[in-house]
Design goal:
Elements (H helix, E strand, L loop, with lengths): L1 E4 L7 H16 L6 E4 L6 H11 L2 E3 L9 E4 L6 H9 L3 E4 L3 H15 L3 E5 L5 H7 L6 E4 L2 H5 L6 E6 L9 H10 L2 E4 L5 H14 L4 E5 L5 H12 L3 E5 L15 E6 L5 H16 L4
């Protein structure tokens, strides 16, 4: 059994920046229990547990859950009102919003100021989408499916931005529907180029192997996208979070296995799974 790793995979710059920021904040804090992330820092349970165990950094769901200390804004970003509320509470704010997400927020704000109604293509409940919509108030909407579009009352002048971890091809029918319904449609390309490289690499590797192992949080949008891409290319695909999930029987009669990982997957998790795969490989008589 040959093990092949995607050319581009694993944690992106934005995720690494967020980790560095929260670890620095923890080391500098007088009372380390006072360092929190607003929501899980990334969509990876193992990484969140690691921060809690080694750095006493815990996640909160709302700013109302704390009254003092440091709060880190994760890479997905937040609406402007969140920063205002944190300031009013006297919290020390560390902003680790991904630069690509900031760009999406800025595009949405600029388009709105130019008179466009904003359509965000992406998962309605995803924190990045919520943060983008927060830039435009009641002048925007999240569209996830063609049914959402058909059930929405949208003006004739529309500006479109995409959740940075999505593929624009996924929304072709929605974009076509907007062109049919609206007098003017302006689209900003807000796809993260790191995510795009990951997806391209996964596509190419899935064409070469029998089995694909996709590593990352089950609630990670970009990791789920990698799993769907791999399956669409015909490879038997397993989306896992930890090495303990691997099963020997998955690789019976397997000649080539590929591995890739989402942008929120830390390197230590990838290495543990790669090590387990090598153990399985060593049992292969071929």
């Amino acid at each position: 059994m040959n093990i092949k790793k995607a050319k581009h995979s694993g944690a992106c710059y934005g995720v690494e920046m967020a980790f560095d920021a929260v670890i620095d904040a923890s080391k500098q804090a007088v009372d380390k229990d006072k360092v929190h992330t607003l929501g899980q820092i990334i969509h990876n349970a193992q990484a969140v547990e690691w921060l809690q165990r080694d750095y006493n950094v815990s996640a909160i769901n709302e700013l109302d859950d704390i009254d003092s200390g440091t709060v880190l804004i994760r890479s997905h970003g937040v609406p402007p009102e969140t920063f205002k509320k944190a300031e009013e509470k006297g919290l020390n704010v560390v902003d680790a919003t991904c630069p690509f997400v900031i760009r999406s927020q800025e595009h949405a704000s600029e388009l709105m100021k130019e008179g466009y109604y904003i359509v965000v293509l992406g998962e309605k409940k995803h924190p990045e989408v919520i943060g983008i919509l927060g830039q435009v108030g009641d002048r925007g909407i999240a569209i996830e499916t063609i049914e959402d579009l058909n059930n929405s009352d949208i003006p004739n002048k529309v500006g479109v931005v995409l959740q940075s971890t999505q593929k624009i091809e996924k929304f072709n029918d929605i974009v076509l529907g907007l062109f049919k319904r609206c007098f003017e449609v302006r689209i900003k390309k807000t796809i993260c180029n790191v995510v795009a490289r990951h997806q391209k690499s996964a596509t190419e590797l899935a064409q070469e192997v029998d089995v694909m192992v996709v590593i990352g949080g089950k609630n990670s949008a970009n990791t789920k996208e990698l799993a769907m891409i791999s399956a669409d290319e015909g490879a038997t695909t397993y989306h896992i979070e930890t090495a303990n999930e691997l099963k020997d029987e998955w690789f019976k009669d397997c000649k080539d296995v590929g591995i890739t990982a989402g942008t929120s997957t830390p390197s230590f998790i990838i290495e543990s799974i790669l090590s387990r795969l090598k153990q399985i490989q060593s049992k292969d008589p071929a």
